[in-house]
């Protein structure tokens, strides 16, 4: 971070409305804010006051890794934000600072290690194969959001969590309500409360100590951590909620990936012809696609800190934009271009610092399986409707296609 502080006047506060954008269009307001400078001031549709916005790659990584910026303090302040409702519950790891943040993540870490994720890979592959076979048996056309992109990540995260198959449809419904403002604050809040009550009940049930898979599930790990006094029961519920709703982000991200490939047929053809480059291509797709609308969660400065030559005062809220960082031309030459030969590709699609996405390896594994399925199981895959008729979610915190009608 640049510690040379400027004495220039504060930048103006820019209103950043909630935009329902089509496809993977880069947010035009964010593009304008990036042009105005590496640090600007914004006001989002909800909450009070204004917040700083940091967009340059190096500054984004510095802020997210700096203990002088607190997530926990956000809970005590009505910071300007995109969502009309405020998600945090007790144990919401996204709103904790070390050492509590470290303690909470440690409770579930074994489920997200390479071993933990690989333990799920074959089961996930079988789940996806079953879904694909059903789609192929029914024949085209098909809505891949409804048939694959929705059910598959939901099944995988529920397998990881230890949620029985019979309960998965309501998990999906609750998640959609929590992550959308389209149905109103009260319905979102009620869905959050219902999911919390469900996990509280699941965690309170006696566990079979001989069931190895059960003990390795997130619910099993949380139950053990509560029994050992490492976390409280309410913290366990909060962790379960965040992991469950975070797992379904794969639906939107992979939907965006498929939309990109179907609108860039030359790239899709190359991935079919050169399977070896797919891992690198997924990194580039992760860098390129929009992962959310506007920005995610804020932080609050514990003390005066200088960022990009601007003094941020103690108590002022700060947002970072990973979307902007992934388009920083100083790090990613020709950032608007989709380049499957880009190397290195140090994207921050999964965040950075202590709050780096705990489920990053799981999300990547699911993305690999889904992209392979699209490329290898559906020859001639293409849209079944004009591209402009593809519907994208409205009022969603996480951007993605509401439906992907395709034929093959």
Walk me through the structure.
It is built from 16 helices and 11 strands. It is globular. It has a domain at 86-291 and 334-407: Cytochrome P450 (Cytochrome p450, Orthogonal Bundle). Helices cover 46% and strands 8% of the residues. It has 408 residues and is of the alpha+beta class. Helix 10 packs antiparallel against helix 11 (233-247). The chain has helices at 28-36, 57-64, 100-108, 114-138, 144-149, 151-161, 168-178, 185-204, 212-216, 218-227, 233-247, 249-263, 265-273, 278-288, 322-325, 360-377; strands at residues 13-15, 39-43, 51-54, 69-70, 142-143, 299-301, 305-307, 310-312, 317-320, 382-383, 405-407. The mean pLDDT is 92.
């Amino acid at each position: 971070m640049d510690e040379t502080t400027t004495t220039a006047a504060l930048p103006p506060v820019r209103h950043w409305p909630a935009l329902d954008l089509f496809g993977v269009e880069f947010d035009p307001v964010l593009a304008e804010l990036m042009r105005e400078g590496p640090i600007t001031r914004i006001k989002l549709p909800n909450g009070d006051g204004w917040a700083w916005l940091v967009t340059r790659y190096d500054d984004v990584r510095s802020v997210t890794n700096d203990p002088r910026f607190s997530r926990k303090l956000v809970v005590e302040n009505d910071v300007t934000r995109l969502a009309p409702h405020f998600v945090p519950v007790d144990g919401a790891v996204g709103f904790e600072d070390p050492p509590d943040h470290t303690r909470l993540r440690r409770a579930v870490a074994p489920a997200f290690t390479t071993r933990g994720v690989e333990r799920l890979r074959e089961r996930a592959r079988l789940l996806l194969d079953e879904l694909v076979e059903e789609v192929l048996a029914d024949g085209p056309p098909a809505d891949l959001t409804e048939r694959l992109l929705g059910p598959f990540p939901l099944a995988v995260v529920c397998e990881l969590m230890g949620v029985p198959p019979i309960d998965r449809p309501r998990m999906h419904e609750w998640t959609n309500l929590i992550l959308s403002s389209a149905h109103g604050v009260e319905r979102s809040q009620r869905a959050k409360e219902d999911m919390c009550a469900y996990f509280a009940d699941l965690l309170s049930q006696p566990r079979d100590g001989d069931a190895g898979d059960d003990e390795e599930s997130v619910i099993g790990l949380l139950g053990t951590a509560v029994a050992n006094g490492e976390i409280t029961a309410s913290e366990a519920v909060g962790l379960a909620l965040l992991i469950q709703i975070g797992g379904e982000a794969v639906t939107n991200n992979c939907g965006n990936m498929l939309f990109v490939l179907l609108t860039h047929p030359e790239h899709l053809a190359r991935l079919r012809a050169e399977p070896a480059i797919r891992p690198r291509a997924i990194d580039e797709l992760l860098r390129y696609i929009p992962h959310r609308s506007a920005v995610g969660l804020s932080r609050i400065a514990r003390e005066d800190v200088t960022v990009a030559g601007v003094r941020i005062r103690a108590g002022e809220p700060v947002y970072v934009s990973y979307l902007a960082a992934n388009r920083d031309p100083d790090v990613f030459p020709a950032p608007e271009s989709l380049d499957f030969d880009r190397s290195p590709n140090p994207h921050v699609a999964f965040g950075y610092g202590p709050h780096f996405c705990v489920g990053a390896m799981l999300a990547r594994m699911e993305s690999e399986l889904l992209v392979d399925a699209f490329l290898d199981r559906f020859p001639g895959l293409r849209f079944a409707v004009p591209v402009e008729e593809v519907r994208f979610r409205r009022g969603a915190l996480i951007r993605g296609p509401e439906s992907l009608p395709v034929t093959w």
